[in-house]
Amino acid sequence: MTLHRWHRCCTTLADVRERCQVDARTGCWHWLCAMTDSGTPKMYAVDLDRSEKRVMPAHRAVWMIATGFEVGPRVVYRACFVSDCVNPAHLRTAASRA
What residues contact residue 93 under an 8 Å CB cut-off, 6+ apart? Predict the structure, then answer.
């Protein structure tokens, strides 16, 4: 059985972008695939923090794909404040409040 291309693991920014609709005006990459019940994008990707593939929040996965670094305890957020945007240029990290 062949999986649909959107069900494959995202390993590059090209993989991510092909699953998005790009807004030319804002630059947002609107995620077209799986979402959580609360509307947050999720994807199957390599979690560098755990060294395994898993379903995880798309913003966290895209940040790791774009930078090649683990996120660790930091929080990944969208500077554009668009809930389904996964454009790596719009992602920022901050210290966790926990």
Answer: 63, 71, 74, 75, 76, 77
